[in-house]
């Protein structure tokens, strides 16, 4: 063994010893507080569902459940090292570790119920399964931004979008979504048609918010400027409409859920809208377009809707969000049928 390899070996061994001591301290200091509301996940889940597992766990925690894994140094280490969001669960002492022979009758074991096969079923409702919905960005839950009250002096009848439009990452979705128009193609089309109002810095953006101007389409590309996660929902709340652009490899994206949480009416392609459970409905809780040419038409339709219709759609969206996308609604559905399969997104494991 070379000196270099020996040093690496000693370094990793020392780190593992320190981590093991922290694990032992953690399990001694963080035990379950009662026999009620106990949810158990498995070691394997950590490597399949990544940030979506974090959001699901946070939803259970928000609803005052005790989230547990079976004891094992390998599980503790995986949570600490596999994903930065899952690591927060250890840092903030939010989960418990239970013995392998732990046996209370009212424990909800999710170990064998989760499946990443999210997009292979076309059904939306069944007694035998539940599709766990898309979430806001994980930081929204870790920092408590997801339901902070927002102040909206008045909404502008403007279509708004914000995100990363880098063509390297957002130009093509996975082949199973071949009929879904990518984020970058939407961006390029609208700019080529001169349908986007140019705003290139924060000062200009806030000047627009203060002005009486509206009836525009505004797209903020993060390469020019952006906002803190704590600001996002408040920014979204200034606009009646949100242009729902797809994510990187799959259409579902956290920014749609953030927009719905403040009542924004989504302007969304039909292929994207039908992936939500239940699907969004045209002129009820969404403005739905079929292709790029139809998007241009629907933009004019959107910017000419009367205020009574807009107010009614805001109400429908708030109801949709409360019934389908809040921690409370998701946890209730999971607990309602403890034998059902739970489809949870697993990033690359789901396509």
Distance between the termini: 43 Å
> Any low-confidence stretches, pLDDT <50, length ≥5?
none
CATH topology of the largest domain: Rossmann fold
> Can you list the strand order of the major beta sheet?
8-7-9-10-11
Q: What fraction of the residues are assigned to beta strands by DSSP?
A: 5-15%
Q: If classified by CATH, what would the architecture of the largest domain be?
A: 3-Layer(aba) Sandwich
Rg computed from alpha carbons, rounded to a whole number of angstroms = 23 Å
Give the overall form. Answer: globular
**Order of secondary-structure elements:** HEHEHHEEEEHEHHHEHEHEHEHHHE
Query: What count of structural domains?
Result: 2
Oligomer description:
single chain
Number of strands: 12
Percent helix, as a range, is: 40-55%
Q: Determine and state the CATH class of the largest domain.
A: Alpha Beta
Total helices: the number is 14
Short summary:
With 351 residues, the chain is α/β, with parallel strands linked by helices. Helix content is 43%, strand content 14%. The longest helix is centred in the N-terminal third of the chain and has 27 residues, at 3-29.
Describe the structure.
- This protein has 351 residues and is α/β, with parallel strands linked by helices.
- It is built from 14 helices and twelve strands.
- It folds into two domains: 3-133 and 340-350, no CATH class; 142-324, 3-Layer(aba) Sandwich (Rossmann fold).
- It is globular.
Structural features:
351 residues; alpha/beta; Rossmann fold; 2 domains; 5-stranded parallel sheet; 4-stranded parallel sheet; 14 helices; 43% helix; 14% strand; globular
């Amino acid at each position: 063994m070379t000196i270099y390899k020996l040093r690496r070996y000693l370094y990793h061994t020392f780190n593992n010893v320190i981590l093991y001591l922290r694990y032992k301290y953690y399990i001694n200091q963080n035990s379950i507080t009662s026999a009620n509301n106990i949810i158990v996940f498995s070691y394997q889940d950590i490597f399949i569902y990544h940030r979506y597992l974090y959001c699901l766990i946070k939803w259970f925690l928000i609803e005052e459940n005790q989230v547990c894994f079976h004891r094992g140094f390998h599980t503790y280490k995986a949570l600490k090292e596999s994903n930065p969001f899952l690591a927060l669960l250890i840092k903030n002492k939010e989960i418990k570790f239970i013995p392998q022979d732990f046996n209370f009758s009212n424990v909800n074991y999710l170990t064998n119920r989760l499946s990443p096969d999210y997009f292979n079923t076309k059904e939306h409702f069944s007694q035998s399964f539940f599709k766990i919905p898309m979430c806001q960005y994980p930081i929204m839950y870790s920092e408590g931004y997801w339901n902070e009250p927002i102040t909206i002096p008045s909404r502008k009848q403007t279509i708004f979008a914000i995100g990363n439009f880098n063509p390297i990452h957002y130009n093509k979705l996975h082949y199973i979504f071949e009929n879904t128009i990518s984020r970058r193609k939407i961006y390029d089309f609208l700019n080529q048609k001169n349908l986007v109002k140019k705003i290139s810095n924060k000062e200009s953006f806030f000047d627009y918010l203060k002005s009486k101007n509206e009836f525009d389409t505004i797209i903020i590309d993060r390469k020019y400027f952006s906002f803190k996660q704590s600001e996002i929902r408040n920014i979204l709340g200034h606009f009646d409409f949100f242009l729902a652009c797809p994510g990187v490899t799959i259409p579902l994206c956290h920014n749609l859920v953030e927009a719905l949480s403040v009542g924004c009416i989504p302007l969304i392609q039909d292929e994207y809208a039908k992936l939500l459970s239940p699907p969004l409905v045209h002129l009820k809780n969404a403005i739905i377009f079929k292709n790029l040419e139809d998007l241009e038409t629907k933009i004019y339709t959107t910017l000419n809707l009367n205020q009574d219709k807009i107010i009614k759609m805001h109400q429908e969206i708030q109801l949709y969000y409360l019934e389908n996308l809040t921690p409370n609604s998701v946890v209730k559905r999971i607990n309602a049928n403890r034998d059902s399969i739970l489809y949870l997104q697993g990033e690359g494991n789901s396509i």
